Amino acid sequence: MMKLNWKRGVAGILAALALIPGAQAAGGRVALNGTSLSAQEAWIENGVSYMTLAAFSRETGRTLSWDGKQAVLEGENLSLTAAPGAIYILSNDRALYVSEGVRVVNGRTIFSLRLLAQVTGGKLSWNASTGTAHLDTRGTVPAQASYDEEDLYWMSRIISAESRGEPLLGQVAVGNVVLNRVADKEFPNTVKEVIFDDKYAIQFEPVENGTVYQEPTASAVLAAKMSLEGADVIGPALYFYAPKLSPVNWINQNRPFHMTIGCHDFHL
Question: How many secondary structure helices (H) and strands (E) does the chain include?
Answer without folding.
Answer: 9, 16
